[in-house]
Design goal:
Chain A: This is U6 snRNA-associated Sm-like protein LSm6. Chain A: InterPro entries: Lsm6/sSmF (IPR016487), LSM_dom_sf (IPR010920), Sm (IPR047575), Sm_dom_euk/arc (IPR001163). Chain A: It is found in: Cytoplasm; Nucleus. Chain A: Keywords: Cytoplasm, mRNA processing, mRNA splicing, Nucleus, Ribonucleoprotein, RNA-binding, rRNA processing, Spliceosome, tRNA processing. The complex is a heterodimer. Chain A is mainly β. In chain A, 11% of the residues lie in helices and 51% in strands. Chain A contains one helix and six strands, in the order αββββββ. The longest helix of chain A has 9 residues. Chain A is globular. The termini of chain A are far apart. Chain B contains one helix and four strands. By secondary structure, chain B is mostly beta strands. In chain B, 9% of the residues lie in helices and 46% in strands. Chain B has a four-stranded antiparallel sheet with strand order 1-2-3-4, with no helix packed on it. The chains are: A mainly beta, B mainly beta.
Chain lengths: 79, 78
């Protein structure tokens, strides 16, 4: 019995959008979502890594294993 | 005295009732997330909107993300 399948729909909708992915460790990744799966494994393009300040830039594809993911967010505004 | 069975409320039903409301989620780490609940699944991964993230130790409020977030249910405590 699925309740509106909102997470699955959400995942289909956000592919191709710029997202913020936060990991358990607190590291932040901002990039364009290339694809992802039901385990929250993520492929990002042109991602940048933020840990307090900006750390590294990655271009091309980054793969993030889903068990490390705290959340995936589409971004519009930041304080 | 016969006691009528109280209708059992499943935890997921309670979460279902919260859809559309603003909720406060406490994570396993020192982090709290407040947002409007749009939906969830059987693993209690949650889709939230207009989210504010609070951390207990550093400066206090951290990030406000608009649009939607998918919060991994593995890290949710309450």
């Amino acid at each position: 019995m699925s309740r509106r399948q909102t997470p699955n729909e959400f995942l289909q909708q956000i592919i191709g959008r710029p997202v913020v992915v936060k990991l358990n460790s607190g590291v932040d990744y901002r990039g364009v979502l290339a694809c992802l799966d039901g385990y929250m494994n993520i492929a990002l393009e042109q991602s940048e890594e933020y840990l307090n300040g900006q750390l590294k830039n990655k271009y091309g594809d980054a793969f993030i294993r889903g068990n490390n993911v705290l959340y995936i967010s589409t971004q519009k505004r930041r304080i | 005295m016969a006691v009528s069975n109280p209708s059992t409320l499943l935890p997921l039903e309670l979460v279902d009732k919260c859809i559309g409301s603003r909720i406060h989620i406490i994570m396993k780490s020192d982090k709290e997330i407040i947002g409007t609940l749009l939906g969830f699944d059987d693993f209690v991964n949650m889709v939230l909107e207009d989210v504010t993230e609070y951390e207990s130790t550093p400066e206090g409020r951290r990030i406000t993300q608009l649009d939607q977030i998918l919060l991994n249910g593995n890290h949710i405590t309450m």
